[in-house]
């Protein structure tokens, strides 16, 4: 990969300014693309219920704001999320395969994926074994993704590359190709537990890998940047890069997601500002 | 061969940093003789939005300091102000004050800052209270900072007006977004250099120069601003501030009939009263 070229392209695309009507449309699209996430050791059934309510109706005072795409949680929380989102379009995403390290026996990982699917998860976000990847054991990584995909069946599988732990952009592209070849429905940047998480240059490299994979095989693969995207401004930059790299077909929640926890409130505050002409305050939005 | 002057770039002061306006705009500050003194940054609504966000982030740290420590820092501002007095005198002369008037204004500004500094660990005793209640409880009221305060500085006196409006906001632990004197912004900008070298944490005071007419509506309407000192607003601007204030019930100190500028009531205007009930021994 040409790192300087990637940085230049990202910098150029980041200067785009999106105004008024387009901005409202972009903000609504961002909301609809969010996998509203809580992945903390202190998560409870109550937290999941509360977050799910927010996922379904992000702004209780404004019904024109769409629901988010999904809630993203730990395996043990799946049953609560399934219950809380029943009868709505909000999907339940569970991380799996011993998130966030992925350092467990493959049989255990497959078992965990199978369990969350049985409990009703609509999508599974797995992590790759970065240790194996970095030591060159690509076959192990490939095989694990393939086996987890088998366990998932028709359920969407997102493969987390944890790009913050991959040393170079070449590694990012290689891991992207590996994951797509092994059957990933989505490739995802990060767990959110490692810094740096999602960055624009990494996202561009992954989107270009998706484009090239599609050119070669005709298979569409989705993309999910996750971690560190906290403002509407940042999210809009991702949409610009997405549109310029993959085009309109990918500009839907079916093919692009944001993994985020705090982004949603910032987007809601931006929408409130566009609607009222008054800068908003976090005091007027629920947390989580 | 004579050397060229190295002229200062007059910038905004946000989060403890000297920044140009995101808009890239400037406007001329004109002296009493009609000559342009300098071109200063013309803050935009986005600069104002950033200033409020920064000020909000700084409330917790500033409010949680002891009153004693805030007093020390305000006193330090006074010390540094005194040290820079020659610069301020020169700037006030530039905008038309006589030498004696300028010296008097700078002296008063230093003294006023010292006066307010002294209140930082004392105002709670005056405004706090043990309230008698009909039950076996201690009922205790205590003034707490209200949060982010917008300060519209009077056009003149440019320095004394700024110090008199800003100090009582800072005393109880609020953070400030200041709209400087539009016609005479130089003292306010030099004052930010004083703040920057006086142990005032970044973000506690944020100073915007520019058009008040342009910025006041966005300040007045901002849902994350808790109070506004409208001291430097025209009657029309003050009305606009009151209209904006209704949306989140901001406290507004109006420019007319608002009493003396050196008064503990100024401090009380930017506090909220917290009351706790505590059971008495039975």
Characterization of the model:
The complex is a heterodimer of chains A (288) and B (282). Helices cover 48% and strands 11% of the residues of chain A. Chain A has 288 residues and is of the alpha/beta class. Chain A has a single domain, classed as TIM Barrel. Chain A has an eight-stranded parallel beta sheet with strand order 7-6-5-4-3-2-1-8. The longest helix of chain A has 18 residues, at 200-217. Chain A is globular. The model of chain A has no long low-confidence stretch (mean pLDDT 96). With 282 residues, chain B is an alpha/beta fold. Chain B contains ten helices and twelve strands. Chain B has a five-stranded parallel beta sheet, with helices on both faces. The longest helix of chain B is centred in the middle third of the chain and has 21 residues, at 99-119. The termini of chain B are far apart. The model of chain B has no long low-confidence stretch (mean pLDDT 95). At the A-B interface, loops of A face loops of B.
Q: What is the percentage of strand-forming residues of chain B? A: 15-25%
Helix content of chain A: 40-55%
Order of strands side by side in the largest beta sheet of chain A?
7-6-5-4-3-2-1-8
Report the mean per-residue pLDDT of chain B as an integer.
Answer: 95
CATH homolog superfamily of chain B: Aldehyde Dehydrogenase, Chain A, domain 1
CATH structural class of chain B: Alpha Beta
Number of strands of chain A: 8
Total of DSSP H or I helical runs spanning 4+ residues of chain A: 11
Averaged pLDDT of chain A: 96
Q: What is the H-and-E element order of chain B?
A: EEEEHHHHHEEEHEHEHEHEHE
């Amino acid at each position: 990969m040409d790192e300087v070229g990637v940085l230049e392209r990202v910098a150029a695309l980041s200067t785009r300014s999106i105004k008024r009507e387009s901005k409202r449309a972009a903000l609504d699209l961002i909301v609809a693309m969010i996998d509203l996430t809580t992945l903390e050791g202190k998560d409870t059934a109550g937290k999941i219920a509360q977050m799910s309510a927010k996922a379904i109706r992000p702004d209780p005072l404004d019904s024109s704001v769409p629901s988010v795409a999904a809630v993203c949680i730990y395996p043990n929380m799946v049953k609560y999320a399934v219950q809380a989102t029943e009868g709505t379009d909000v999907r339940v995403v569970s991380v799996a395969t011993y998130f966030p390290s992925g350092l467990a026996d493959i049989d255990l990982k497959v078992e965990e994926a199978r369990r969350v699917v049985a409990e009703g998860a609509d999508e599974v976000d797995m992590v790759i074994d970065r240790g194996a990847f970095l030591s060159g054991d690509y076959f192990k990584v490939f095989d694990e993704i393939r086996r987890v995909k088998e366990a998932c069946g028709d359920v969407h599988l997102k493969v987390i590359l944890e790009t913050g732990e991959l040393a170079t952009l070449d590694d990012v592209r290689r891991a992207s190709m590996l994951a797509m070849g092994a059957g990933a429905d989505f490739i995802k940047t990060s767990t959110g537990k490692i810094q740096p998480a999602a960055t624009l240059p990494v996202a561009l490299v992954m989107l270009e890998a998706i484009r090239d994979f599609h050119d070669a095989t005709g298979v569409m693969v989705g993309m999910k940047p996750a971690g560190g995207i906290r403002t509407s401004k940042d999210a809009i930059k991702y949409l610009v890069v997405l549109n310029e790299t993959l085009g309109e077909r990918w500009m839907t929640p079916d093919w692009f997601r944001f993994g985020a926890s705090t982004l949603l409130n910032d987007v809601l505050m931006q929408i409130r500002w566009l609607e009222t002409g008054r800068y908003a305050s976090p005091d007027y939005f629920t947390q989580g | 061969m004579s050397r060229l002057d190295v002229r200062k770039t007059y910038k905004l002061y946000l989060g403890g940093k000297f920044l140009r306006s995101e808009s890239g705009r400037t406007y001329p500050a004109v002296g009493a003789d009609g000559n342009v003194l300098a071109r200063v940054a013309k803050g935009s609504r986005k600069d104002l939005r950033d200033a409020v966000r920064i000020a909000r982030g700084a409330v917790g740290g500033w409010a949680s300091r002891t009153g004693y420590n805030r007093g020390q820092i305000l006193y330090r501002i006074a010390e540094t102000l005194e040290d820079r007095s020659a610069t301020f005198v020169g700037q006030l002369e530039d905008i038309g004050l006589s030498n004696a008037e300028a010296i008097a204004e700078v002296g008063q500004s230093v003294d006023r800052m010292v006066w307010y500094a002294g209140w930082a660990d004392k105002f709670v005793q005056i405004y706090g209270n043990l309230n008698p209640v009909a039950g076996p409880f201690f009922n205790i009221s205590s003034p707490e900072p209200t949060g982010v305060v917008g300060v519209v500085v009077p056009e003149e006196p440019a320095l004394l007006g700024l110090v008199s409006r800003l100090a009582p906001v800072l005393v109880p632990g609020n953070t400030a977004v200041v709209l400087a004197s539009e016609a005479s912004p130089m003292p306010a900008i030099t004052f930010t250099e004083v703040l920057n070298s006086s142990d005032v944490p970044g973000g506690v005071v944020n100073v915007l120069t520019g058009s008040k007419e342009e910025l006041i509506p966005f300040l007045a309407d901002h849902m994350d601003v808790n109070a506004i000192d409208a001291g430097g607003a025209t009657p029309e601007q003050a009305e606009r501030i009151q209209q904006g204030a209704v949306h989140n019930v901001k406290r507004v100190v109006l420019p007319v009939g608002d009493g003396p500028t050196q008064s503990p009531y100024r401090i009380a205007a930017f506090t909220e009263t917290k009351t706790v009930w505590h059971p008495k021994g039975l």
